[in-house]
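Internal QA ticket QA-208
Title: Verify multi-chain structure generation after dependency bump
Assignee: T.L.

Test input:
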Amino acid sequence: MKKKIPKLLMKSLNTEPEFNEESNIEDIEIKKQDISTDIEKNLETFKKIFTVPDNADVKLREFTIQQLNRKAFLLYISTMADLNNIMAGIEGPLIDSEHPGSKIKDIVSYPIEKTSTNIGDITEFIAAGVTALFVDGDPDCYLFETTKIRGRSIEKSENEVIVKGAKEAFNEKVIDNIALIRKKIKNENLIVKTQTISKRSRNTVFLVYQKDLVNEELLQNVKERLKSFDTDSTIDLSILEQYLEERPRSLFPTIVYTERPDRAAAFIEEGHIILLMENSPSCLILPATFWAMFHSPEDHYLRVPYGNFIRILRFLALFVAVFTSPIYLAITNFHVGMIPPDLLMAIAGTRERVPFPSIIEVLMMELAFELIREAGLRVPSPIGPTIGIVGALILGQAAVQANIISPIVIIVIALSGLSSFIIIDISMNFAIRITRFLFIFTAGFMGIYGVTALFIGGLFYLVSLKSFGTSYFAPMTPHSFSSKDLLIRHIPIKERFRPGYLKPRDMVKQRKG
Amino acid sequence: MKQQSAKIGVREYVSIAVLMVGTKATEDTPANLYSHVQNAAWMIPLLSAGFFFIPLYLLIKTMSLYEGKDLFSVIKKILGKYLGFMVCLVIFIINSFAVSFDTRTYTNIIRSFYFTTTPTLIIYAILMFICAYGAKKGLQHIGSVSYLIVFYAVVSLYVALWLGTKHANINSMFPLWGSGAFVLVKEGAQKVTIFADFFLLTMVLPYLKSNKAFKKGTWFSYIYICIQISMSILIFVCMFDESLGGTAYPFHTLIRYISLGQYIPNVEIIFFIIWIMAAFIRFTAFLYINALMFGNLFKIKDFEYLIPSLATIYLMLGFIPEAPINVSLQFKPIIWSTVGPMFAGISILLWLVALIRGEFKHAKNKNTM
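Actual output:
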């Protein structure tokens, strides 16, 4: 009741105008029909559907099949199909073949994918790069799988760089991406299931999982979630990610977005579900926990002591990134007694001629750092490093000499800024950077007390986050059975179990032997 | 999306208990004890634990008759509708006052030691706001957060105490019996209030994964906490000796006193951070339990919505005493000397009534059948 009243009020104040769609009932009706045996009629229908000849890359070729002495036409989109194959395997034999034959499949050398009669279906296939053959007097339309999509090849991972381990990354072709995963998991239980999620552009999502591992309830949950939104187009996985998340406005991500196939394969092996999409050089891993974003694949590739060393380093970096500037602010403003006298004198000496309060100083410098960082990303790569050096070094030096910023603030900002790069996950990285600003404000307002209050409040919030029913800090708390790969990882022989929060069908991934 | 059932495991429960009760050694309890029994103060927690063991055991035994019922339901069931309601109401009211004055005590500590120029109201309001926010998230999340920080809280307490021993003198322990064995026993019986929180924790029993987990968790944390409190007080006694009676908050004096080597003379902020985190958890749990009680008393199902208003009321209530000294000397002693014995009395009463009504036999018959 309480919530209803403001909602009603908002609704009455904020009315959405009604948009009426232009009627296309005629088109929809056509697509429901079957093709006719009369080739002239078919020709007319498909010319209308594909707006031939205005549509430049839709190729329609009419000819006569010699052996059958019948009229026929081929329809395909030249930019989506492999022209050489069409010429050599389909068109050539049909027009001019030495072998006599009465059936189409005996004449063409290219394998027929399937036959279809429904206009709507055929249209969809053609739009996806399939070549359609219509023959006069034949009730079926022959479809050839000639799709050839252009894109870049498999390249090195650029955003999640590691030193030891596989380097290849996903690209924009989903076939390649699936192949990359299959290459790592050679098992018939690895399922690639497609699901169409948008109406107009018919984007399909590929769910990849191990049939004999994944929890059925989780799978159903994900499928229903994918079905639940009614949208015309979802062009990229990163947009789908926002549709899927329970709290899209939250600062913290609840789905892992990665471009590394080895990482995806590792998660599949644990019983997670991977989502892939055409045109997206990445995959989504769900459900995800804090640990999934915090870990890097390299932790496991390196030997145990080294792997744990970088884990601890990363954990430290997480705290340094968030808390250095707030703690500097809190201590210099509220708890001066904590600093050893010599250091206090040094800090006070450098701040003597700076006219701003330290919170303004820190905020200015944080902002400058974020600017340099963002600019460094967008600058064309040949001049990128130069800009970085000009920005960071010269700006910092000049600011200190002009008595705008004290040198210690430069140290603090540089340290926290550098540390934030250690968090690989891009969403987590943003989350950390934004929370830093929140902490800076609370530190300026209430010192350590404010920082701690926000920290505990934040922990309460984080703990209550859920990703497809999985708590953010699972399996640490709420506790569930797992191989305890949290802050510290164990030697591979000891990691015998899949995470219990997923409720996989097979908990044990390594038997004693 | 379907939410998981909000049951907490034994780890989370123990963490809540340790943070809730264990923080008692860091407020004005040691000074309070010292003023009564001098340097035998460290024995009081052990004695009280011994005294309170019997009622707590009986209570848990009685509660185990009613699987999956919380304290208030059991009280109502055993004592009847009207008497039960009265008893529950009294518990709720006393507990409300306890929360208000405890939060005020913590606010006083923060203000007098760390933020001397900040208005009390702001410190107090932030404390209550965070606690209300956390409590509204529910018991499972309180448990998770306390599990995440309990390790650091306990370790930092021990580090502080260990650093404190460098300034301590073991001879301050003697005479061993302080102001006399009889006084000690008498005070020990009265100060069972230290462990009264365990009585309240039986409210959350239905939210635990199993009755067994509850029993295990309760006894583990009970024994651990009585050792921890006793040890902290012993170190305070050895450090401050006679002056402990006049040191309102010995833990905070201690962390101001200690240093990390020559170079870093003041480390109190590090310990303050962790102490205040523990305090947040403590009052969050308290607030949640109080809301649970209120919801149970007046049959309000969605009691989570009550938490902000309850927090506001406690804030106003705790704001009534004008000076910190009033809280410590006028209001808290009343609660101190009544709560513990009363809760113990209620526990024994419940057990007796259940025994007379033959509930135990009943349950036994049910089991054998």
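Spot checks passed. The first helix of chain A runs from residue 4 to 13.
Status: verified.
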